[in-house]
């Protein structure tokens, strides 16, 4: 029993490594201009490996979108985030207490402080402007549109849509 966890991790990382090798092979054939691989380094989304379709823009709630995050104290400038689209242009974002809603659909809570103790400020509320998205994940500590440093994501920051591979 003691070795079952080790074996499961070995299989997990072997599969992920195989996908990376396959992606490198495909990118050497010119596919890299349209597609890219992203590795999830946090617990904010399930999954380890995502396929990014560059130049593709989200059109529906729940779709995964990749974008470059604004400068902040938690992640290096230019870090690529993958989040779920929670709101599209023209939809209403509201807050009740510490809970965020998009069109009366609860998205999650915001926290006044990061786990590090850093002060956090609420993100925008009201109608999502044209050319912008409200993004989130279900993780209770997801750094997303609920926070001012992320806010609504402008279309020009979107790299593309993403699909979970593994």
Q: How far is the N terminus from the C terminus? A: 25 Å
Overall shape: globular
Total helices: the number is 1
Examine the coordinates and then state which fold CATH places here, giving the name of the CATH topology.
Umud Fragment, subunit A
Average pLDDT over all residues: 87
Tally of separate domains: 1
What is the CATH class name? Mainly Beta
* Amount of helix: 10-25%
* Low-confidence regions: none
The CATH fourth-level homologous superfamily: Umud Fragment, subunit A
How would you spell out the order of helices and strands? HEEEEEEEEEEE
Describe this structure in words.
By secondary structure, the protein is of the alpha+beta class. The chain has one domain (34-164): Umud Fragment, subunit A, CATH 2.10.109.10. Helix content is 14%, strand content 33%. The chain is built from 1 helix and 11 strands. The chain has one helix at residues 4-27, and strands at residues 35-39, 49-54, 64-68, 80-87, 92-96, 99-102, 105-109, 126-127, 132-136, 153-154, 158-164. The protein has a 7-stranded antiparallel beta sheet, covered by helices on one side.
């Amino acid at each position: 029993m003691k070795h079952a966890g080790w074996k499961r991790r070995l299989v997990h990382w072997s599969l992920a490594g195989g996908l990376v090798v396959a992606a490198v092979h495909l990118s050497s054939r010119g596919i890299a201009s349209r597609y890219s691989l992203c590795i999830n380094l946090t617990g904010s989304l399930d999954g380890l490996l995502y396929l990014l379709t560059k130049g593709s823009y989200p059109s529906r709630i729940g779709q995964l979108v990749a974008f470059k995050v604004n400068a902040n104290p938690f992640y290096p400038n230019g870090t690529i985030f993958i989040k779920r689209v929670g709101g599209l242009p023209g939809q209403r974002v509201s807050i009740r207490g510490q809970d965020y809603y998009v069109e009366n659909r609860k998205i999650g809570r915001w926290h006044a402080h990061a786990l590090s103790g850093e002060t956090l400020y609420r993100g925008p509320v009201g109608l999502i402007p044209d050319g912008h998205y409200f993004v989130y994940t279900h993780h209770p500590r997801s750094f997303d549109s609920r926070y001012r440093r992320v806010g609504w994501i402008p279309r020009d920051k979107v790299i593309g849509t993403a699909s979970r591979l593994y």
